[in-house]
Amino acid sequence: MIRKACVLAALLCSPAVFAAHSGTGVAFVHGTGKQTNAYNDYWQPTMVNTVRQGLVNQSNYVVINCDFEQYMWDSRAAGCLASQLTSFINSKNITDLVVITHSNGGNVMRWIMSNPTWDSRYPNIISKIRWVNALAPSSAGTPLADAVISGNVFESALGWLLGYKSDAVRMQQVSWMAYYNQNNLNGTSGRPALPKGFWNVVGTDVETAVWDGDSYCGGYSLNVGLEVTQAWLNSCSDGFLECNSQRAAGNLWFYDTDRMAGDEPLSHNQSRRACFGLQNILRDDL
């Protein structure tokens, strides 16, 4: 209901909104890790190509490839993101930008939105954003980051997710994110609001029944690894992040089981893939 009210307000306050549709674009911002081909390796083609069908001009999309093994403010993280978003906005004449983030990508995006004076490119990016759709954002960190930094060993299947003691993982320790949320980032309780909407899709569980075809969406072995790591988390989690972390900044858009086909939950791996109709919801949101 809150999101619908924001859409209505935008329509009422922006008479030229329909004329601007050809200038609408979408950006896909990956999570922890150093990506060089996030289109194939992180999101996969079905996810990206389904979502961009919601655009008037389906070529108005960009898949970000940056080094998110760094702290969010690092030039290789936020600086790289700002550079690629700026190039996209300028080359495609984007006037209305929907940003889709996953996991730690939400933190990097929130850094840009919270610190407009940090980089001269930030204000223009912020001005073009309609809103951010944050898929399973790690806004309050995760106990798994604490476990990795303290030396616990996880399933090798989680290498893509945790990065093994990178600065990004160190940053996502629970106490560290609490500090950043209190001092450097906006959008959490008691802090200034973000300049544009930050809408969370929250993953609540991991299912890996070998006889259940739904458990294979996004990669069965990755989902099994996430089910193992649920032992470090509370009962509401996507295998990497607890629900309260995913909801810590911005506003709730929806919980997975409220909107996914068959009331399926989204593991942390599935929330970046074309699973259970997520791709269609993101497409229709454009």
Describe this structure as you would to a colleague.
This protein has 286 residues and is an alpha/beta fold. The protein has helices at 2-13, 38-43, 45-51, 75-92, 105-114, 122-128, 143-149, 159-162, 167-171, 174-183, 220-229, 243-246, 256-259, 278-285; strands spanning 24-29, 61-63, 96-102, 129-135, 197-202, 251-255. α3 (45-51) runs parallel beside α14.
Summarize the entry for a quick read:
The chain has 286 residues and is α/β, with parallel strands linked by helices. The protein contains 14 helices and 6 strands. Helix 3 packs parallel to helix 14 (278-285), helix 4 (75-92) crosses helix 5 (105-114) and helix 4 (75-92) packs across helix 6.
Structural class: alpha/beta
Number of distinct beta strands: 6
Average predicted local confidence, pLDDT: 90
Q: What is the straight-line distance between the termini?
A: 17 Å
The number of helical runs is 14
Specify Rg, calculated over alpha carbons: 18 Å
Helix proportion range: 25-40%
Which overall shape is indicated by the principal axes computed on the Cα atoms? globular
Strand line-up of the largest beta sheet: 2-1-3-4-5-6
Low-pLDDT parts are 10-20
Q: Write the H/E string, N to C.
A: HEHHEHEHHEHHHHEHHEHH
Beta-strand content: 5-15%
Largest sheet: 6 strands, parallel
Topology:
Layout: H1 2-13, E1 24-29, H2 38-43, H3 45-51, E2 61-63, H4 75-92, E3 96-102, H5 105-114, H6 122-128, E4 129-135, H7 143-149, H8 159-162, H9 167-171, H10 174-183, E5 197-202, H11 220-229, H12 243-246, E6 251-255, H13 256-259, H14 278-285
Parallel strand pairs: 1-2, 1-3, 3-4, 4-5, 5-6
Helix pairs in contact: 3-14, 4-5, 4-6
